[in-house]
Amino acid sequence: xxxxxxxxxxxxxxxxxxxxxxxxxxxxxxxxxxxxxxxxxxxxxxxxxxxxxxxxxxxxxxxxxxxxxxxxxxxxxxxxxxxxxxxxxxxxxxxxxxxxxxxxxxxxxxxxxxxxxxxxxxxxxxxxxxxxxxxxxxxxxxxxxxxxxxxxxxxxxxxxxxxxxxxxxxxxxxxxxxxxxxxxxxxxxxxxxxxxxxxxxxxxxxxxxxxxxxxxxxxxxxxxxxxxxxxxxxxxxxxxxxxxxxxxxxxx
Length: 252
Ligand SMILES: Nc1ncnc2c1ncn2[C@@H]1O[C@H](COP(=O)(O)OP(=O)(O)OP(=O)(O)O)[C@@H](O)[C@H]1O
Hints:
Blueprint: E1 2-13, E2 19-31, E3 35-39, H1 46-54, E4 61-66, E5 69-70, E6 77-79, H2 91-95, H3 97-101, H4 109-118, H5 134-146, E7 152-156, H6 164-181, E8 184-188, H7 192-198, E9 201-205, E10 211-215, H8 230-251
Parallel strand pairs: 3-8, 3-9, 6-7, 7-8
Antiparallel strand pairs: 1-2, 1-4, 4-5, 9-10
């Protein structure tokens, strides 16, 4: 299985009737089981790329294929930047929502409880979203994407709003879940250390709409100690340099 974007372009017309090109001729390929991070300055179009892959937005040109089939709404699991947990539903009912709409998806309450336990939320199965902290809601929101049963998961800055310690915990369990389930993950982040620690490959979306690929040559499984390794530090510096070159380009 692979996910392929072929010459994808997306533009919208603003209130002054001008065309804004958000994505232009984007080519990208992600293999089964890969963990790929998408980075880039704010406004370069990262979230738009994920929305195009989900089918929530439709490209103006090009093709998006999974296993050689054009993607349509519901083909991938998606965790948006802002969690969309339904406030009137309990946590367990929120994470099981996909199984209510997909007849072929067999997720029992027992399965759901097992996963809630794994992410430390079993005590909250009957709580409402407003009773949970930000980190807990993110975990619930992640389980909801996981429980779509899809092989491809798109995660848009899932840990962006968390404190450093909670973020570290969430990264560790995300890696363990990814390894156990052989999911394909595209992960947006502004945290370059996080991108380096989690990914097989990093894709940097430039302001001029081109995509640059950076391979992460660190062994798996990743261990927290690696964050301070020479390789990781130099990769982070390389990424910082690339991004700050972008910022300078904007000034001239
Ligand atoms: N349909 C649309 N209508 C109006 N503006 C749009 C539309 N689609 C995209 N944009 C604009 O396109 C740009 C790219 O947005 P996008 O959210 O994809 O960027 P991003 O790289 O994910 O940013 P961030 O890192 O800040 O989340 C933004 O300026 C956004 O406002």
